[in-house]
């Protein structure tokens, strides 16, 4: 079941997106800034973005969606669908500790260098 939200601008709107055709994931609301225009509306973390200003998002890349949102000067109309899976929000999650910093393009050796 989809629903529509119109945020009155100008931006910033107060939410972040994740996904897009280039990520093979639906566009999804990943974060809502407390006290923002998005927080004062019906937007919920995890909701799927079906359309932006009446334009279907099925074939939009992440960048195309961002540009469409940024181009909304006064009103931003979103058509959304409630997520089937709620995203858990944890404020007490411990930080992840890594013994070594890992940079994807570098090789990490766990043995000490020999001199």
From TrEMBL:
Keywords tagged on the record: Cytoplasm, LIM domain, Metal-binding, Zinc
Top-rank lineage group of the source organism: Eukaryota
Subcellular location: Cytoplasm
Pfam families cross-referenced by the UniProt entry: PDZ
Gene Ontology CC: one annotated term: adherens junction
MF-aspect GO terms: actin binding; muscle alpha-actinin binding
Alphabetized CDD domains for the sequence: PDZ_PDLIM-like
Gene Ontology biological-process entries: actin cytoskeleton organization; heart development; muscle structure development
Cited InterPro entries: PDZ, PDZ-LIM_domain, PDZ_sf
SUPFAM superfamilies hit by this protein: PDZ domain-like
Main location: cytoplasm
SMART domains: PDZ
Stretch list, region Disordered: 89-115
Domain PDZ, residue spans: 1-84
Name this polypeptide is given: LIM domain binding 3
Annotated organism of origin: Ursus americanus (American black bear)
């Amino acid at each position: 079941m989809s629903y529509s939200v119109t945020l009155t601008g100008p931006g910033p709107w107060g939410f972040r997106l994740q996904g897009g055709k280039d990520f093979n994931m639906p566009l999804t609301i990943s974060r809502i800034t407390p006290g923002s225009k998005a927080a004062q509306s019906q937007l919920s973390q995890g909701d799927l973005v079906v359309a932006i200003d009446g334009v279907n998002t099925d074939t939009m890349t992440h960048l195309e969606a961002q540009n469409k949102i940024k181009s909304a000067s006064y009103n931003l109309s979103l058509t959304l669908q409630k997520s089937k899976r709620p995203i858990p929000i944890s404020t007490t999650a411990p930080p992840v500790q890594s013994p070594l910093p890992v940079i994807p393009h570098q090789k990490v050796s766990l043995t000490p260098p020999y001199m």
